[in-house]
Amino acid sequence: MAAAAVKAYKRRVPIGDRVFDIFNIVFMICLMIVTIYPFINMLAVSLNDASDSVKGGIYFWPRVLSFDSYQYVFKESTVLHATGISILRTVLGTIISTFCSAMVAYAISRPEFVLRRFVTLAFILTMYFNGGLIPNFLLIRELHLMNSFWVYIIPGILGVFNIIVIRSFIEGLPDGIMESARIDGAGEFTTFLRIVLPLTLPVLATTSLFTAVFHWNSWFDVFLYNSSHVELSTLQYELMKMLQNSNASVSGTDASGAFASSGSSSANFVTPTSIRSTMTIVASLPIIMVYPFLQRYFVKGLTLGGVKG
User: What superkingdom heads the lineage (predicted)?
Assistant: First the structure.
C-alpha cells in the first residue's frame, strides 16, 4: 500500500516540485546539524577528561568520561547561591517586566489616547540613543539602587521592543471584544486584565522568553553595581570570574594549560577550554529546558505581533 501511495504521489506532483522537496529536506538537515553540533561538541568536551581533551579529536561524545569540570564549577558554595539569585532575578524580572510592558502597550494601542504617537516615538528613540554608561551609572547611584537586588529589576522594567510587539498584537484584536466589555461596565484596567491579557498570551510568552534570556545571561550590571556584595552575585558573573581565574592560573604553566582543581596529590585537572564548555552548558541548560514549553506560542506570537507596524 505504501508503494502505491508513492506512485500516486509521483504521478500527482511534478518532477520540479519533487526535486525542490528533496533539496529542501537535505538543506534543512544540514542546517540542523550545523546548528546543533557546536552544542553537542561543547557537551562532549565538558564531559571528557580535561587532560585527554588537550589531545583533540573530541566531536560528538566524550572519549574519557569525567565530571571533574562540573565538580570544579560547583565546588564553591557561592555558585549555588548565585544560581538562586539568578533564578529569582529571572522569575521576578520577567513577570514584572512583561506585565508592565503589556500595560504600556495596551495604553498606547488605544486610539482615544491622544498622545500615543508621541509616546511611541519617544520609546522608539530610546532604542537608538541612550545617555551612555557613565550617566546610567550616576542615575543608578542617585536612585540609591547601588548594592541592592532591585538594581536588576527596576532599570529593565520596560522593554521597548517588547512594548512595540505587544502593541502591534493588541491592535490586531477585534475592537468589538473590548467595546462589549465597556458596555458591560468594565473599566480600562478590568478590560486589560480579563480581556486583553488572556488574548495576548502567545505574544506575552514570546516576549517573556526574550526577557528571561536577558536576565539569565546578564552579568555586566552585577559587575557595575554589586561586585562588592557576594550575596547579590549572579551565576553568570560567578562563571565569568571563574573563567578569568582559570586563564590567570594557567598563564605561567605549560602549553597544555591544565591546572589542578584541588590541592590534593591525586588532584584532577581541568583546562580553560573544559571550563568554558562546562560554563556554556550550565548557563544554557535552564533556557533550553524552558523553551519547549513556550515553543507553541513563540512563532505564533512573534508572527502575529509583527503584522502591523
Answer: Bacteria
Helix or strand holding residue 259 (H, E): strand 259-260
Residue 148 has phi, psi (to 5 degrees) of -145, 155
CA distance 153 to 95: 10
Radius of gyration in angstroms for the set of CA atoms belonging to the chain, rounded to a whole number: 26
Q: Are 194 and 181 in contact (CB under 8 A)?
A: yes
**Dihedral sign of CA atoms 222, 226, 229, 232 in order:** negative
Residue of 207, 242, 200 lying closest to 71 (CA atoms): 242
Grid cell listed for 110: 488605544
pLDDT tens, residue by residue, 214-267: 999 888 889 989 888 888 888 888 888 877 776 665 554 544 455 555 444 334
Inter-residue contact 50 to 66 (CB < 8 Å): yes
Q: C-alpha dihedral over 239, 243, 245, 251, to 10 degrees? A: 180
Compute the residue count for the chain: 309
Per-residue model confidence as pLDDT tens digits over 167-193 = 888 888 887 777 787 777 778 888 888
Collapsed DSSP state (helix, strand, coil) of residue 109:
helix
The Cα 226–Cα 152 span in angstroms is 10
Instruction: Classify domain 67-309 at the CATH superfamily level.
Output: MetI-like (1.10.3720.10)
How far is it, in rounded angstroms, from Cα 274 to Cα 280? Answer: 10
As a whole number of angstroms, the distance between CA 161 and CA 146 comes to 26
Q: Domain residues of the chain, as ranges?
A: 67-309
CA separation for the pair 136, 25 (Å, rounded) = 49
Residues 102 and 165: beta-carbon distance below 8 Å: no
